[in-house]
Amino acid sequence: MIGVRAVSAAFSHPLEAFEGLPSVQVTGMLKEKRTVAPCAAYAEKAVAALQLEPEGMALACVSGPTGITASHFDKAWRQSEHGQLTGEGFGRSRSKHIHPFTLVRSLQNQVPAVLSMTFGFTGPCLNALASATAPALLMPCIDRLLDRCPAVLLVMASAGGREENRARLAHLVPEPLHLEGAVCLVFTRQPQLGYFEAVAVTEPDEGPASFPQAPPVLRLGLALLESLALRETQRLIVLNDFAGYRKALHWRT
Question: What distances in angstroms separate CA 87 from CA 71, 74, 103, 211, 242, one per listed residue?
């Protein structure tokens, strides 16, 4: 059993299901900054709303698309003599067309790095890459971290609503919810909002997948926020990823 003490979220667009939840803010589509990609910027806003004391708190992140896409590297590609981003001579000439921060902002582990520098998290720190099931897979690690830390902050962030990302995923999600943002959960041993329990999903029709049209990284957070908005006492949250894996968490208040 892993208790949830607090929840916050920052989204690019309003969602009718969450109207009235004070923990949800609508930011609009965030533009990239020189040193921070949109994905990390959403995470910053969601974490700031919690007003945490980070000392001794562990940080776990599930990072989706950063908002910095392959098109950001077009300048180096187009000005290259050989039409390639890599290869002989790249470090001496073509790499000069790419700003150093462009590469840093494109990395998905930028999210925990930015949060650590901005808010003063000093570890332990975990980071998992984009997957709908990743938050559920991290639960055993979070459970172990709570044996040595008073609280664990889980941050799920994604900025995959840009045109290039939508085109790449069109064949996987026919009618996607073009949403960007971040959801934060604070875990402790003493639940204030409720708690999660992992459950086995053995049958394909055990339960409908939660928010299948939403960005994979945000599905657990969206399902939890919807349950809180509806004031449910329990919910089975089933998560499916693109590889066919299924994980389920039972939420109880």
Answer: 19, 16, 17, 42, 32
